[in-house]
Design brief:
The chain is 67% helix and 0% strand.
């Protein structure tokens, strides 16, 4: 499968969210793994964290100590946030067998490592059917963590996004619609994840030829400005995208 090439400028609610201080907190065990997706990178501290992880691994049994395993995941995420994707993927490939053996396939740390590996390989085009692989992960998260868990919602957004990229617009639309209902109920209407999921659906509708999708996106941008603030990166990126969609021949087009 070819790697993802879509770059329509939309803001994603869940990107590569950890580095530096956040990854260090994960490795130290003071940040729950189910909070991984809700923090932005502190990339300047990434190298410090990598050195700290190397020391921690040297003081514990690399392949069997749960704390060392979690530190190794933190290291992979710090590398990922530094855009050292190949090295991060190698770390995850090396880590996952140990996580499955020591913690088990249903442990939250194992599921998180599996998620990051899947997202890297899916974005790189390394998987023959990344949609099926993500759907399997969603099912596992629902079974283990529950349908309302934030990491389950995270995986569902990625599934909807990949369905859209694959050209399955009807399934993507249904996935976004169901996700919006659940993020609104669980996280609230003004949560950034809900607002961004709504914007993704509006963009999908507009690009599928439903011209009122643009007006819907404008209303969502207003909601973002009210809930998140005019200077928030989500608000700014959505406003910029709205301008691009409304005037595709304008400045910066192409």
């Amino acid at each position: 499968m070819a790697p993802s090439t879509r770059d329509d400028g939309r803001k994603k609610p869940w990107g590569w969210p950890l580095a530096g201080l956040v990854a260090m907190a994960l490795g130290a065990g003071i940040m729950p793994v189910d909070q991984l997706w809700w923090y932005l990178p502190a990339a300047a501290l990434g190298e410090v964290f990598l050195l700290w992880t190397a020391w921690r691994e040297s003081t514990a049994k690399r392949s069997s100590d749960p704390a060392a395993l979690q530190a190794r995941l933190g290291r992979a995420l710090a590398l990922l946030a530094q855009h050292r994707t190949d090295v991060a993927l190698a770390e995850l490939d090396d880590l996952l067998p140990d996580l499955n053996r020591v913690l088990g396939p249903d442990h939250p740390v194992t599921l998180s490592a599996r998620t990051f590996e899947l997202r890297i390989r899916g974005d790189r085009g390394d998987l023959p059917d990344r949609v099926a692989a993500m759907a399997e992960l969603v099912a596992d998260r629902q079974r283990v963590l529950g349908p309302d868990h934030e990491e389950t919602l995270t995986a569902r957004y990625q599934l909807a996004d990949w369905l859209e990229e694959s050209g399955d617009i009807a399934q993507a639309r249904s996935a976004y619609e169901a996700l919006i209902v659940d993020t609104t109920r669980v996280l609230g209407a003004d949560h950034s994840a809900t607002l961004i999921s709504r914007s993704s659906l509006a963009i999908l509708r507009f690009q599928a030829g439903e011209r009122d999708g643009l007006a819907e996106l404008a209303g969502i941008a207003d909601d973002m400005e009210r809930a998140l603030g005019p200077a928030d990166s989500t608000t700014v990126s959505t406003r910029n995208l709205l301008t691009r969609l409304a005037d595709p021949a304008g400045p910066g087009a192409g």
